[in-house]
Amino acid sequence: MTSSAAAIVPITLTVNDRTGLTLWAPPWEDEDGEEWMGFLGDGKKILLYPSTADLAAFIASGEENDLSDHPAWGQVLKLTPDDLRPTGEDHYDLDRVYEWAADEPDPVHISALADVVDMVAKIADCCDDGRLRSLVEGTPAYAELVDEDISYQGKDGRKRWSELGDTIADSWERAIGRVEDWLEWVGDFSASEFSEDETLWEHIGAEPIRIEVGDDVLLTVRGEVLVDADSDETEMAFLGDWSPGGGGENVAVFTSVADLARYCREAKKHRLVKLEWWNELADDVDDDAFTPDENATFDLHRPSATGADLLRQLAAFCGLDADTAILDEARPGAIDRDDWTALVDEIRTCFEIQD
User: Fold this and answer.
1) Do 181 and 215 belong together in one domain?
2) Residue 41 in 3-state DSSP?
3) Which of 152, 227, 274, 351 is at a distance of 20 to 30 A from 135, taking alpha carbons?
4) How far apart, in whole angstroms, are the C-alpha atoms of residue 7 and residue 70?
5) pLDDT greater than 60 at residue 344
6) Is 178 domain-assigned?
7) How many structural domains compose the chain?
């Protein structure tokens, strides 16, 4: 959509098992009414970075780039790495197109496919790649996909969905190859890639946990967030409503995996959204992925070393003036049971069970 209100948006592109961050300037009009759009580039290729910190460092360097003359570039220069973190809607995964096309034509898969094909068309236009433009914009099945009025329901819709799948099977590898030719991967991407042994949660830097307390079995997520970029200082954070400078926090806890999964996908006002790859949970991730591992269960009915660590983290996160010194005993068995129970009860006041 063309707009006179120019903007620059951080996005991620996933191509051939690599995910990189760049900047995208949606169509805007200059003072003469001429339309422009573009990506962060060096005059030849689109620049992709492995993290928001790397992208921020390039921006701060002041190096000339294809967006330097953009009306909003002055605002980009003021952005922090956190500000440069793309939303879930701004992730374009070219590798998953085959998977989505092979699945049912539900709104999620249709929308994801349409967004990726539309972004590839924009890359073709901005890079003036006639072959890529013809491949996506000149192919009826792709053109129909980005048409908001298209339907893949009913007999005719199913036929169109099948034809789209055939088109993707025949041409998408060529599309990815041409897109790859326009990308410049800047930096070390080994830390930002999924490896065969890396789980989704390891990639994100957080984990679902199970807390057994009283008669309840409660679920939440915890992860380390950066609080000082200069010193690399981090602190443990949990799910729950949060605002900068807001003081003590409450912890959002759940009694079902489905409710936990929905919250992680939809909620935005909690500390863990600061994690660089948190928005990947908004993708097509099954609820089962939110089930805590067996070693992520904390039984708070009695003192334990792992339970003591969790209580310290919860007390700090919730801003409680609690006596956590009782947890500093050399042996967990030396902790007084009554003191332990009192501390657990105090921390439970910060739990907010979500429906």
Assistant:
1) no
2) strand
3) 152
4) 9
5) yes
6) yes
7) 2
